[in-house]
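User: My instructor asked us to take a sequence, write out its structure as tokens, and then describe one feature of it. I'm not sure where to start. Here is the sequence I was given:
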Amino acid sequence: MIAEAALGLLPDPSLLIGDRRLAEASGGRYEHIYAATGRPTGTIPLAGEAEIDLAVAAARAAAPGWASLPGDQRRNLLLRFASLLEQEADTLARLSVIDNSIAIGIAKYGPYVAADSFRYNAGWADKIGGEVISTWPAAALDYTHDEPYGVVAVIVPWNGPVYAMGMVLGPVLAAGNTVVVKPPELAPYAVLRLGELFLQAGFPPGVVNIVPGGPAAGAALTAHPDVDKIHFTGSGHTAQHILANAAKRMTPVQLELGGKSASLVFDDADLDAFSGQALAGIVNNSGQGCINPTRLLVQSGIYDAVIERLRGIADVLTVGDPTDEATVMGPVVDQRAVTRIMGMVGRAGACGARLLTGGHRLGGALADGYFIAPTVFADVPPDAELAQTEVFGPVLAVTRFDTEEQGVAIANGTVFGLAGYCWTQDLKRAHRVARSLTVGNVWINGFTGIPASVPFGGNRQSGYGRLGGIHGIREFLRPKNVWIAL
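Assistant: Let's start with the prediction itself. The structure tokens for your sequence are:
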């Protein structure tokens, strides 16, 4: 039996608008299902257009005071919130497990990564300034002043909402913006708890508003005339609708979308080091991660050796109860995901892909949940569906290449451009490959996470704009130029 003791930790599911909690909303209610058991955990009120109007109005009312608050005071509130995140880390991790059944061993890092982002961005809150510019004529003074946008709409993803809240709200709030957050109905609980922590930390009412909702709420929020900027993390399909809404009012949008990231393994790679992360792309959150390396491109000289290693690693992975510390992989998020993923698995053989392991749902004690066995296909053609389409599940596509140029061409041969990985002991090659990959982020010989101080984001259909570092702060500021005759 899958453990469900953590259900006693569930927060108040009410919407948070200003300092008000709304237990009912015009968007109806959503029955949340625990992916590990297929059983409901509770019902969530969903925001409709009326609640979106209220939330945006609350954010707009709070915007002048928050923007004019001295930077050191915004900094201190962000630091206080980061400390609360760490104090609540265990609860937030367990809520994340209930949200989307991520394995607890991975979920427990999310609150600390989010706290690091809030703490890093707090350091920028009192350092936002402008510059004096030399102009013609000499008898004039010209300077710039960075200002917040005002009200920012943030739509966070179901696959990592705590992490996303840190990555996005850290710079949004440090820059002096107020925010309306729409967490996904699939994973609402951890974000709702974060809403409580914002008030506990002392943030003024209306600075952060939390309104769970479905597509109707997202449409109302992204089309709202009083929203000044939009951040969206999610699928390219939904992003197209958001862009259409935003275009009607010329609202600027930042997008963090999907990927089909490739890991290139060259003949000279340290295979022992590589083996430790060989299946990370499908194990981490059951393959439900935009930066996960779900394509493995292996040079011909070591192809057969790598295939045998993959088979052995997959056979000993612990898949099961996500609340168990020994579990490395839980289920996928819902039945729709199971249907979609198994459809892609079923079609893979038609293109010549060879199934090495997995390819089926798991039964026994796991039969009621949405569990899919770790699945590895070898000999996947570069133009096959498995190599071109984001699976968002525990499926790895392995492809052979001969030369560096061919490997890079295959890696770049999708519509995406989020992340790339390279395994080689040749430093010159590492730099060549990094420069040649048309992605926003490259990791060489390993992956340990994304520090808050570095830019993160994608190219092409993986989105645009950057989070992290000074780049993240700049995304949510706009410069104003002032010219004064002397």
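For the description part of your assignment, you could build on this observation: The first helix runs from residue 49 to 68. Try explaining in your own words what that tells you about the chain.
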